[in-house]
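Per your request, structure below.
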């Protein structure tokens, strides 16, 4: 491997935006580690990514964001091979029409979309700090605008709905971005979030029940391609225009407005403290 080549990690890299982001970064001569939860799908995506990018500097490591042990194992494998991490793209996301919980017992959308990425980022911070100028890119959504953080029932055990859960997780992405940017302001690491737009992926399809397929088929012609959706993530990952920008939220490669809740520093601090406490319960401490 060329040691001068930058290194990136992309979560949820086996399909959709994650795969497009992987291909785009590889084309820029960045060594990409695809963090995927499934070996077979990951290997298929790896082959496709190499084919479409024309690059060989892409590899696969398994990482299931529902499982803290899997996240820890991924980080152990990564840090055993590399001393630095230049770009972390927290892209993976789930949408669950029916309430589900992760291996750790968290409501799935909060557990994967927020808490899994919170832990992954936390464990990779030393590698990011070792880079000359690292970037963290968090894929959020315009869905954050209807979200709120349900501290009284974080796992939505009562009155669950997919919109309630997804909105909470996407708001959490932005609050995490802003609080992390503040806490890393003394470093050379920038942290930004984005709304990719309505992207044509399998994100909203429950493969086990088939729920959502009819809605997906109707709306799919109006969605943009994963390549289009990945443009802002790639912009935040590599553009010199955002070298010193941190704590921002972008849409179509431009700064965008966020909801009143997403701008609340006290709410961001409370969510951070809750997240740290949950990780501490599982044995992960500062």
């Amino acid at each position: 491997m060329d040691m001068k080549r930058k290194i990136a990690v992309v979560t949820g890299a086996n399909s959709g935006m994650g795969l497009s982001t992987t291909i785009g970064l590889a084309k820029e001569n960045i060594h990409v580690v695809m963090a995927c939860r499934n070996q077979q799908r990951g290997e298929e995506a790896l082959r496709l990514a190499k084919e479409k990018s024309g690059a060989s500097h892409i590899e696969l490591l398994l990482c299931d964001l529902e499982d803290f042990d899997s996240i820890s194992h991924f980080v152990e494998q990564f840090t055993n091979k590399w001393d630095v991490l230049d770009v972390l793209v927290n892209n993976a996301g789930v949408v669950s029409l029916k309430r589900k919980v992760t291996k750790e017992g968290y409501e799935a959308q909060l557990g994967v979309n927020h808490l899994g990425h919170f832990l992954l980022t936390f464990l990779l911070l030393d590698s990011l700090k070792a880079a000359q100028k690292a970037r963290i890119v968090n894929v959020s959504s315009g869905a954050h605008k209807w979200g709120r953080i349900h501290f009284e029932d974080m796992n939505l055990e009562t009155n669950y709905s997919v919109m309630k859960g997804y909105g909470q997780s996407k708001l959490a992405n932005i609050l995490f971005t802003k609080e992390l940017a503040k806490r890393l302001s003394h470093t050379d690491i920038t942290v930004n979030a984005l709304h990719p737009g309505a992207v044509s992926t399998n994100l909203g399809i429950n493969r086990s029940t088939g729920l959502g397929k009819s809605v997906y088929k109707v709306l799919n012609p109006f969605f943009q391609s994963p390549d289009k959706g990945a443009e802002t993530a790639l912009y935040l990952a590599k553009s010199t225009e955002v070298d010193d920008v941190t704590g921002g939220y972008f849409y179509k490669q431009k700064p965008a407005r966020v909801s009143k809740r997403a701008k609340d520093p006290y709410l961001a601090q409370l969510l951070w403290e809750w997240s740290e406490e949950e990780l501490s319960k599982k044995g992960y401490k500062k």
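The radius of gyration is 17 Å.

Regards,
D.
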